[in-house]
Each structure stands twice: as C-alpha cells, then as structure tokens.
Design a protein that fits this description.
The protein is an alpha/beta fold. Helix content is about 40%, strand content about 15%. It has two domains: about 110 residues, NAD(P)-binding Rossmann-like Domain (Rossmann fold); about 200 residues, SGNH hydrolase (Rossmann fold, 3-Layer(aba) Sandwich). The longest helix has 20 residues.
Length: about 400
C-alpha cells in the first residue's frame, strides 16, 4: 500500500520553484498545478502542466495555496471542496516580514549567522571578528566555502563564544580566520562605554552571556527561527514527513537578507574629511590600555586556540588594512605591546598570522572610512589572503 500523498498546488508564483524543490517527491505527488489566470492555461511549469480549476480530473488530499486568493471561492469547485487547505502564501508573507525584522535586529541577524554556520553544507572556513572582518572579507572569493560570524565591535571573547557554539556540533571546518587588531587584547565589548549596549541587544539574547556587563532591562526576542518553524509545523499536518521547510525557507531566504558588505552603518569616507576621521579613530584605538583586560584576553586567546587545536582546525589570524592617515596617527607602542603578547603565544600554539595593517595592495579609494575597507577593497584583500594563507 502506497503512503504517497497527493496534492494540488494553486497558483504559479515566485515561490513555486523553491516550494517544489523542498518536497519529498518520493512521498508526495503533485497531482496538478492549478491557476485560473488565462495566461497560464495549457502551459508547463517545472515539468508540470498548468490546468484550469474547471478542468481538474485528479484526486488529491491537500490543496496548497501559493498565491493570494479567496479560499472560500476556490473551494466551490467540486474537486476541491473536501480538501485540507494549506495556505503557504500567507505563511511566506509572514516569514518575509519576520526576516526583515531579523535583518534590522542584531540578535535575529546573529541567530541567522549561527544557524547557517552550524549546517553541514560543505563549509571549510569559519570567519570571526569585528567590523574589520565583516567589511574586509568577501567570503565568496575564497576557493573554499566560508561562513562569517562577524559583527561590528565584536571582541575576542564573543569570537570565542560564538566559535565554540558553532563547533560543538560541526566537524566540517578546516580553517578559522580570526579577524583581530593590534588592540584586540585591550578591548572588552561588555565594558565599553559606547558599545556595551550590544551585549544587551545582540549577545545576551543569543548566548545568554553578559560577560562583565551589569544586568540591565531584559531584552526579549519575540520569536526566533526555530520557534517559527515549530509553529508552522504544528499547523501543517504534512510538513514533518513530506515537506523540508528549512530547505524551502533557506532557498528563498537569500532574497530577503542584506549582505553585510553592502549594507552600511558607517558614514562614507566621502562625507567626512579623511584627515579628521582617520586621525580620531587612530587616537581612540591607541588610547586603549587596560592591564586587567590584557591578562584576561590572553587567556581567552589561548582557550580559543586550544579549541581549534582540539577540533583540528588551522587558525589564521588576520590584521586588516587601514587608511594611510590612520596608520600615521596610530601609536606604535600599541603595535609593540601586541607583539609582546602574541609572540609568546606563538611558541605554545601553531597558527598563521597575516599582518595586513600596512598592506600596499589597496589604495585610499578602497576604504569606506578611516579603517574599514569598502567592497572593492574587500575583494582585493580577500584575493590576497587566498594567496597568503597556507592551505
């Protein structure tokens, strides 16, 4: 006895290709594609003939709606009267709204980063770091598949926590590109006067970890992705066995999310005098001098490297290029202090360090501002890394 479920699909729409590709067609049979619009009559879509609702000569158990339509009206057709109706169109419209909120909300965005990073989908490179890595790497240009879990003002502590979260259940990764800076041992997001709010809005909702930040008003996530999937599954009797919802939503997900390399929260370097911005940023970063943080973050770095060693992942530390005016105003004592910390660690752990601070392969035009690459600069520097990394 066959366990195949027969379904009708109503509506040729932008969603149809991804929906059909998400079905388990060994367990589900598309009995007919139905569309009342004249322009679709007697046409073929993805190998299926489109028929008028007045010319249905098949039986089915479910009617899947992929267009906005009056459900009561279409159920007047004899062949459709007693079917279980699944309004996928409305679900997807809700999902689209949900993901727009996710993109605009850092916690939702971080949840999405983690979810994609945890998938066993052939990825070999895990990229962590702050906005330097977010802006400075175009992961699509590597010869191996790379996934980013980078965010603006993300410190070494949260790099480690996020990597630990991803690597708990994923053994695909072979390389970890660790986006760092000369002041990475001095910077603690949770203690930052200007960026500490990110713990409340981003890291605590996802990791339940405030690090050193005192408790503040609770930050709630009304619905994360897994809760959304669970809610949909409860309303879809066919979904668990026959419809790979995650595959489907992933397929259309990319059309609704922003590429962090393209979406800019930074003011363009053309809008602020180069001299002012680069000088101020360099002075601000050079002033970081926190002995207690240095001690703690040396240990965090070692814990991070120990994790990668245990997972047999090669660490590649990368310092990103900065605008020439930033370099001129950056305190060399900070560079000296960085190497006084990292050199002893290099005797304990095997890693590659690529110092691109003064990389000459980019020009002033390749910067978004005083210390962040734009998309053209990111492409140049990524291709440089592709050649320099000891794969």
């Amino acid at each position: 006895m066959s366990n195949t479920i027969d379904i009708f699909i109503w509506g040729v729409s932008d969603y149809i290709k991804e929906f059909i590709s998400s079905l388990n067609l060994s367990m589900m049979n598309i009995a007919a594609l139905i569309d009342e619009r004249q322009e679709w009559q007697n046409r073929e879509v993805l190998g299926y003939s489109v028929v008028s609702p007045d010319h249905i000569f098949y039986q089915a158990e479910y009617l899947v709606l992929l267009r906005k339509i009056d459900k009561e009206r279409i159920l007047q057709h004899d062949r459709l009267k007693n079917l279980t109706v699944i309004n996928v169109f409305d679900m997807l419209e809700f999902y689209k709204d949900f993901h727009f909120k996710m993109v605009e909300n850092p916690a939702y965005h971080l949840n999405a980063q983690l979810r994609f990073a945890k998938r066993n989908d052939g990825q070999k490179i895990l990229v962590t770091g702050s906005s330097y890595a977010t802006r400075g790497i175009n992961e699509g240009l590597f010869s191996r598949k790379a996934i980013k879990i980078c965010n603006g003002s993300q410190d070494l502590y949260y790099d480690f926590r996020l990597s630990s979260n991803v690597l708990e259940g994923n053994s695909n990764y072979e390389y970890a590109i660790m986006g760092i800076s000369y002041y990475c041992f001095e910077y603690d997001t949770s203690k930052s006067r200007t960026q500490g709010h990110l713990v409340d809005s981003t890291y605590y909702p996802v990791l339940k970890d405030r690090h050193h930040r005192p408790y503040s008003m609770p930050y709630s996530i009304p619905m994360n992705f897994q809760n959304f999937l669970s809610a949909i599954r409860e309303g879809l009797p066919m979904a668990n066995d026959h419809w790979d919802m995650e595959k489907y939503f992933d397929a259309i997900y990319g059309t609704w999310t922003l590429n962090p390399n393209e979406a800019s929260s930074h003011v363009s370097i053309n809008d602020i005098p180069n001299e002012w911005y680069a000088e101020k940023r360099a002075q601000q970063h050079s002033s970081n001098d926190y002995p207690d943080t240095r001690i703690e973050y040396q240990k965090i770095m070692k814990d991070y490297l120990e994790l990668l060693k245990r997972k047999k992942i090669k660490p590649v530390m990368v310092i990103f290029p900065v605008h020439p005016l930033y370099r001129m105003n950056f305190d060399s004592k900070m560079i000296k202090r960085f190497y006084e910390i990292i050199d002893p660690i290099s005797h304990q752990y095997d890693f590659q360090l690529i110092d691109g601070f003064a990389y000459s392969g980019v020009t002033k035009r390749d910067f978004l501002d005083g210390d962040h690459l734009n998309s053209e600069g990111a492409a140049k520097f990524t291709l440089y890394l592709e050649k320099e990394i000891s794969w």
